[in-house]
Fold:
Amino acid sequence: MEYEPEELIPIIADLTDRYTGKESTSVSLNKARQLTQAVVYCIREYEKSGRGKSVPAVKDVRADTAYENGFRIVLYKTEKAQERFGRILSGFRSYGNIAYSDTVEKGFPEFFAHYDARFEPQENVLTLDYPVLIRSRGRSGIDWISQYLFFIELEQRFLHRIPTDYIEHILNGWNGNYGELLINICAFVYRNLMASALINRRVSPENYSKEEKEELTEKLIRLKKEEIIQELEDLTNRLINRNYAEDPQLKKYLCADIPDFYSEITNAVNHDSLSAVIYC
Amino acid sequence: MDNKQFFQPYQDSRQVKEIQTMNDYSQNFGLSLAGKDIEVLLQERKGILKEQERVEFRGGILKKLIAAFCDSAYIWQDNYADTLGRLQEIFYQYKNEAMDDLTDDELISYMKEKFEGDCQGSLDYLEDTCLEEFARNIRENQDWREEYWNTNPKN
Structure:
């Protein structure tokens, strides 16, 4: 943000007038703070849109122009997010997980009904209970919502290629209450595929044999962290290349789970509780 | 002088001039504010806004208070500036108490009617009794507008 407060105050004042309909000369400090954040959010959206593109740098445009351009970007992103949501919803499967279904099927229609691009573009409105694999890292408003929906779309693309019966079977076998847990369905399925692949085991709805469990445990103990992570990345590459037309975004999204998966599965192995992480 | 220093005096001097123009109207009722009075009122306004945690980007509420109250039977030249100061304080306080569910005009209109009626010019009664009850009704979600305008003798 390269503007001085004096350049922003007239924009905030105009937005305040618009908010009060010019029927109140003053607003509460909280409301003023919210409106200030709205202005800053839009300017930042404009600022971000210029990175690596032929948009004039923020310092070269007036603050009010940057704000209006940023506001138009917020509207555009909202429209695009709505289109994406429509695509997701048409084939959405929650696999019996309540948080997944509530967040997507109930939460997002509410979001689009209540999102206020003009006065509160920085608000998510939703709590987004269903955890995706990549965190918001300070993103908020439609910027984070768009990204979140993009992740959900990737997850659905990944899950749709796998039989629903298999997914629900391994979820249920792993934890009969999975429907009520705040877990990432995609990560659970991905981890199970990776665990099988690590020992060349055929993907199967059956439990692991004693030997298969021992083989997986032995491998996870024997190999160094870097070696396991490298192998998981290679296996993910193969999985994506064969089944998902080399989708680089899906690959990147799934690979984001590898560090957590490694930590959890090696910890489980050390505590003889492999079944806490995968269905086995 | 940096931008911030420049900004503030410019705003203040402009506001003093704007409020001075209201003297043309209030003099019809024998009331006027000297430049010094206006500066004091504007200074008080800053303190009230800070105390009430409110933000005002443009001119304050003084011009509207002057327009509404200068024909009051309970205000004369000697108590004019002090009364405006109290009215300004009460106004911002009750904007908060009413949770911003009132426009400026609605609040001023109610204050004026009570000041001239039930309060008979008592600012304490206006602040502690009339507006307290009014704000409570608003907070309790009663349809105060309907109740108020139905009992307003002017309507």
